Every structure is written in structure tokens, then in C-alpha cells.
């Protein structure tokens, strides 16, 4: 049982901090960058949960059943993932050979569960005909942002592996993080589909109409304001 009696220690006042094994490194170290990004991703998952709780469950006097389904699925799935990311962060806060023997590590099962969930969500989704822009209502936009942080976490793990050499990160940790970014992408699509939101598809430059910006709209708004002021 973890017992925390004091958060502040002063031990990091000079830019150093401790790994799980007690060794000290600068806070700019690649391993701390990985741990920090893992924490950042976990925090964005908390933002997603906040956003789904803010969804209105009634519209035009009728109950929105799909909102309740989205809330049920995301509460369970993201809640589980938050615990797993905390496990992962603890693991990555130390070279594998220095991990305490009592520490339970994520296994292939956790990665397989992510794949099973993706397959279940994909079964009800239409095929993609283009890339998707990161847009949508609060929950979906937050999922997109979490996905990009998951990709950054993956890049940071690669950087750590390159800087410290083979064996500095368990291969399964990399596999698991790679699954998370895909999982979030599919989750975002499924959530949007359940909430009847249209996906914002990317249109290649050659197929987009000529874009002259919004300056003319701003000028028109100002002209309208001036006309109103003259009344």
C-alpha cells in the first residue's frame, strides 16, 4: 500500500529527480520526458471523461440513449486505461533490469484487449474515404488531442531506447503504446458515429476551392456595425 504523507520534498530544487530504483538524473533526461508524457496522456484521458459527463442526455424533450451508451463505454474503457498508463509510467521510470521484483507489469493481454475493443468499434463504422481532421464536439476533439499525445509518447520511447541502447525499454511497452494511439483514433470515430456527428474529412489542396481568407468577412462585419451605429 502506497502511503504519501508529503508531496513536496525539495529534492528536485536543483533540477534533479529520482527514478524508481533511487538513482538521480536531471529532469531533462529522456526517461523523465517519457514519464512526463505518459502522465500528460493520462491527464487528457481525464479531460475526455469530463467532456462525456457534460453531454446532454435529452434533446427536444426526448432521451438520447446513445449518449448514455457512450458514457458507459468510455467510463469503463478509459477508466481502465488510466490505471494501465499509471502502471506503464511506473515501469518506464526505471531501466527494466532495475525494476523492483514486486512490480506487476503490463502484459500481452492488455495490448490484446485494446485490439478486441477496436475490432468491436470498427464493426459498426463506415469505411474511411479520406483522412480525418482533428475536429468535433468536446469529447471527440479531446480524443483527437489525446491521440497526438500518445504518438508523442511513442516517439519519446523510441528516443529513450536509442539514447540508452537495447534493453532500456521492454518491447511490449512500445507495442502497447502503439496500440493506444490506434485505439484512440477508432474510439474517436465510434464516439462521433454514436453521437451522430459528421466526420471532418481532409480535402487535398488540388480539390479545394480557391481560398482568399476571411478578411472580406471581417470588413463586412465592420461595415454592418458602422451602418447600425449610424441609425
Molecular structure report:
By secondary structure, the chain is mainly alpha-helical. It has one domain (32-204): Cobalamin adenosyltransferase-like (Hypothetical Protein Ta1238, Chain: A). It contains 6 helices and 4 strands. The chain has helices at 30-53, 65-92, 108-122, 138-164, 171-194, 215-230, and strands at 16-18, 24-26, 58-59, 62-63. The chain is globular. The relative contact order is 0.13.
Question: Short summary of the structure?
Answer:
The chain has helices spanning 30-53, 65-92, 108-122, 138-164, 171-194, 215-230, and strands at residues 16-18, 24-26, 58-59, 62-63. It has 231 residues and is mainly alpha-helical. Strands 1-2 form a two-stranded antiparallel sheet. A two-stranded antiparallel ribbon has the order 3-4.
